[in-house]
Amino acid sequence: MIVGPDFDKLARILVSEREDGCLDRKVVGGFDRFLAAWLREARAAAGPALQRGTVDLVASSLQGYGAKTIEERISSVEETLESLQTVRQGQKDEAEGAKPVAPAPARPRKAQPSPLDPKAPVGALKGVGSVQARRLERLGVRAVEDLLYLFPRRYDDFGQLRTISQLNYGEEVTIIGVIQEALNQKTRSGLQLTRVTIADGTARVEAVWFNQPYLLRQMQRGRRIALSGRVDQYLGRLTLQAPQWEPFKAEQVHTGRLVPIYPLTEGLSARRVRTLVKSAVESAAPHVVDPLPGSLLESHGLLDLPTALQQIHFPDDEDSLARARYRLAFSELLLVQLGVLRQRLAWQQRPGRPMTVRGASLEAFLQTLPFALTPAQRRVLGEITDDLQRSRPMSRLLQGDVGSGKTVVALAAMLVTVWNGMQAVIMAPTEILAEQHHRTVTELLRGIAERAPEREDAVTGLSGAGPIRVGLLTGRLAQAEKEEQHRQIATGQAGIVVGTHALIQEGVHFHDLGLAVVDEQHRFGVAQRAALRQKGHNPHVLVMSATPIPRTLALTLYGDLDLSTIDELPPDRQEIITKWLSRLERERAYVFVRGQVEQGRQTFIICPLIEESEKIEAKAAVSEYKRLRDQVFPDLRLALLHGRMSSADKEGVMKAFQRGEHDILVSTPVVEVGIDVPNATVMLVEGADRFGLAQLHQFRGRVGRGEHQSYCLLLAESPSFEAEKRLQVIEKSQDGFVLAEEDLRIRGPGEFFGTRQSGLPDLKLAGLGDVQVLERARQVAVEIFEEDSALSQPEHRLLADRVREFWGSQTDLS
Questions:
Q1: Mean pLDDT, to the nearest integer, of 51-55?
Q2: 748 vs 690, more confident
Q3: Of 79, 110, 482, 779, which residue is least crowded by CB atoms under 10 Å?
Q4: Residue 438 buriedness (CB in 10 A; 0-12 / 13-18 / 19+)
């Protein structure tokens, strides 16, 4: 029978503590009191080396438990339980006569390879056990290479080395000195202080840490350490309060430099992540293969990849950091550009079917519209019809501001298609938008037939084919209706088809699809666009976006598409009066809303985006809805819309609002782009300083769609200087493209898009606002592509592999 420390008792307490969330309430008197008693007994009873080593590990990991943070407690408990599992196995082996193993803090692993393969699992790094590997996986780190690409969120500048005699209040500094004295104190309020006096030959200074008494074990007198932090004051003396520290060595990691700050997860401290990244950089970064040819690096003055990875994590100085960031951002954007150029080439190499544009019929259609096309609309229609006449399939992005008239241009292209004996389809992201498009197209064709019955050729198919039938296919149709729509699509009776994602389901077969139009392109992924293309034999494709995007960014996001822009609004488009209001003017805004409702109008109220969490957004919206309903507008009809509602419920609320059943719609930013509610004349945006100009402009575009004067009221609680500039700009400008450019200029790199564009691979470092890097990367990508479009030359093969890896299954690169 084995005797020794009662590890089972300790393990039971630790498991119980872990299940309670490490709140230090499972042991009467606190865990520290229990641990002290257990250690006394354990040290007296410890026999073999395995037991003694484990007791020492327990003491090192768990002492000072009550002063640790919850995250530190969880980490200590997990690591101790893993160690106890090892000692239990050793005791079992000893009982069975096996040779006992040496003490180990975690389960045994294979020796660390040297040099370390970047593709090796992260567990190959020294000190990473199964528990830490699981925590790292929450940060997206599975392989050592993933640590190399876990880029810092920011840096603390602790590079200002000072002697103690040079310290000034308020500075961020690093000092190097020798510990003269160290002690723990308890204040009357129960706060634990660790006071350490450091001297460097010029003077002395005191450093203080709060509720970390276990630090005292590491603060031995005579030890040389480096400390970094802010110089503070206590009772007239300069101090360093809770500074970063580490033993002094030739190269510092946590002090004395630009110190990287990484994303964290529960159970992994900033120091631990930094130490692991440092280990990965030293052992694996030198062995990363650079996919860019040496000639390209030299001609463009770029760092090689191993150096860039080392400098992005532990830069020598600001200039080295800037060069590393530029190189890595350039690489990412180059991969984006090469991918979209390849997609563009792959599509253009497919055979298309040129159409005949019947100029007289097209002009007849345009002349019978109840409005005249703007010069911009005619220009882009010409670009589209030129494409339709070519023998390669069209692949074009049509972008235009809210209300610029994209739909009628698309309808003209669809008519050209039908006149050539083929079908056209338009896919919208939601049922309500699909029904709106169906209604618009049907009414335009009906109106033309009524106004110009002598020009029947403008609204019919080929001679004798009769009026064009416009089909509608959505997921909520009854089964019998769906089957009838499927039949009309398959037989070609439906010349123009409008629908949602239901269009790309397996049971949908087109008779002869010639043109596919995708509305609100950013709402669909590459795969969905490709699925719609597959419904025909290389049909022409036109995608539309009402989100204004500066040209350079459009070439990145949609570089596989030709670009057409409607850059002017119809002359009769009313200006929406926009006013920025302070929090003191909220009541005034409510009075105005009530006045509009009394005149029979309707209002949108948008709740601010608190953070990227639909759950939190929904809670905020529900709370605001209840406040407005019960306290501000108890006599009016209010409805609520947020992202946690089901699609059916959202559709129901929007349709009821369209029908005029609600006076006010309280919504999170989920309210759909392009929704047409002609009777809505007020857009009230709460927390307007939280939104970018492009999004505020999209909100504003949801009113002003009828005959009545419309208004956009922007309420801002306490806007920053930058937010004030945005609000001033949108008060003065109605041009979405001007606003997009201004938004990019004001908010700078990396903030222009709040979420990743659908269909674009994740960018770990580059921001879509890094315009100069983006333009240079596109220029280089075009040069490479013109020389070697297949990336088959020896110097491009590594680059081809990286493009495939970056884009995954989305590229057609072979």
A1: 73
A2: 690
A3: 110
A4: buried
Q: How far apart are CA 577 and CA 731, in angstroms?
A: 8
Contact (CB, 8 A) for 633 and 664: yes
Note the pTM of the prediction, 2 decimals: 0.61
From CA 141, how far away is CA 718, in angstroms rounded?
39
And the tokens for 393? Answer: 């399939």
390: amino acid identity, one letter:
R
pLDDT of residue 361: 84
pLDDT (tens digit per residue) in 225-248: 888 888 998 877 889 988 888 887
Tell me the two tokens of residue 127: 């000190």
Q: The tokens of 162 are what?
A: 């000072």
Q: pLDDT, tens digit, for every residue of 544-597?
A: 887 767 666 676 666 677 889 888 877 767 789 999 998 889 999 999 999 999
Cis peptide before 115 (omega within 30 of 0): yes
Domains of the chain: 7-95 (no CATH), 154-261 (2.40.50.140), 404-545 (3.40.50.300), 577-733 (3.40.50.300)
Helix axes of 70-95 and 130-138: crossing angle, nearest 10 degrees: 150
H-assigned helices in 452-578: 479-491, 526-533, 551-557
* Cα 719 from Cα 282, distance rounded (Å): 44
Write the single-letter amino acid at 166: Q
DSSP state letter for 268: B
The single-letter DSSP state of residue 155 is: E
Report how far Cα 64 is from the mean position of its chain's Cα atoms.
Answer: 39
Question: Once rounded to an integer, what is the mean pLDDT over residues 753-758?
Answer: 39
Instruction: Name the amino acid, one letter, at 187.
Output: T
Nearest to 125 by CA among 276, 249, 232, 19: 276
Give strand ranges (E) for 363-468.
Answer: 395-400, 423-427
Structure tokens at 728: 């001033």
Q: What angle do CA 425, 429, 432 make, to 5 degrees?
A: 95
Residue 751 phi/psi, 5-degree rounding, is -115, -5
- The yes-or-no verdict on residue 617 having pLDDT over 80 is no
